[in-house]
Amino acid sequence: MTILRRLVALPAALVTLFALVGVARLIAPATGGVDRQPPGVDRQLDYLRAELDDGAGEDAQAMFPEGWFFAHALYGLARVETGLRQPPQERDEALREARWALARLESPAGTAPFSADLTPAYGVFHAGWTNWLRGGVLALQPASGRDPAEVRRFAEASNALAAAFDASATPYLAAYPGQAWPVDSTVAVASLRLHDHLLPPRFDRTTARWLDGVRQRLDPRTGLLPHRVDPGTGAPAEVARGTSQSVIQRFLPEIDPTFAREQYLRFRTGFVVSPLGLGPAVREYPRGLDGPGDVDSGPLPLGVSFSATVVTLGAAQVQGDDTLAGALANYGELVGFPLDTPHTRRYAFGLLPIGDAFLAWSKTARPWVSAPADPPPTTVEPWWRTRLVVLLVLLAVLAWTPWLLLRRLSRRR
Description:
Blueprint: H1 2-27, H2 41-53, H3 56-61, H4 67-84, H5 92-106, H6 108-111, H7 123-139, H8 148-167, H9 182-198, H10 204-215, E1 228-229, E2 236-238, H11 242-255, H12 257-271, E3 272-273, E4 281-282, H13 306-318, H14 322-335, E5 339-340, E6 345-346, H15 353-363, H16 384-399, H17 401-412
Antiparallel strand pairs: 1-2, 3-4, 5-6
């Protein structure tokens, strides 16, 4: 009986340890806001760089069409984010790594999935994200010491983007032949605002015209930018969805903070939920509407998209919604199973490095152009952690139940 109790005690102790670690992850701060580095993000980025060198981009490409591109782009952007939190004299590593990522995006491997025949070349998805990273590389450098070739390339690419928007009958340029998604054009226009923030301004009229066109083509069901549009007219072709909205809400404050706040509050009302009352998450489709998942959203248990939930963390942080950002981050610490070594951190046992790239980019989110936003009224219940803590404690207690029963039987003998 003693041996049996010891055998039962081992898994019970492991479950108890898991529960205690879970409680700690729910309570300990998991973000740093717009000023401080998030805990563990430097080690997470070191892990990501090693994984990219070992083929993580190719693995991500096998999962979805922009996998290779996103794996490198988000790594580079997260390096910019961490560098902007450091004194200028300590940004060498961030600048070197951001330049490395940018070179990868501009390489043949970076442009391979896209069409050079589009306007702008390779489509607005590739052009917008790449130009945003170009601006980030410049933002890491003091204004008087910027590389002239990098300044010239950023200005030329921005001019090409602006010319494409000015010549278009719709605010939404094509990312692939005959296909347009508003989220891609939102990133591209944000890069024009970044140009005007870093260099002499040139694109106010382009931005104003774009915003006017966007306001005329909102999704009638939600009042938000639609997920997909008719490429010829920009008319909504698909209801707003969480995977694209989470990115739109991250970039829209850089373009027009007032309009962005209106859109963010609509998004938060329609998409942020608390499934089973156990914490905040983000739906792929607005409340009251269900639909199929895809390669962007992943599976949709209870209508929730894990990818949209991760990216919304960054959108909330840019919007000054630190309560929601912190809750999403803590929830991620609980369910993401982070594994730490002295030099690395990885989530989900390191099975999906692209997920780490999205998470690192989201945790390091901060405005690059606009001023930090005032916090909106919170919608997160202050006691949301309590339910999860109670469940973890119950799990630990139940794990010891067989051991207690065996102990009781042994005493009767």
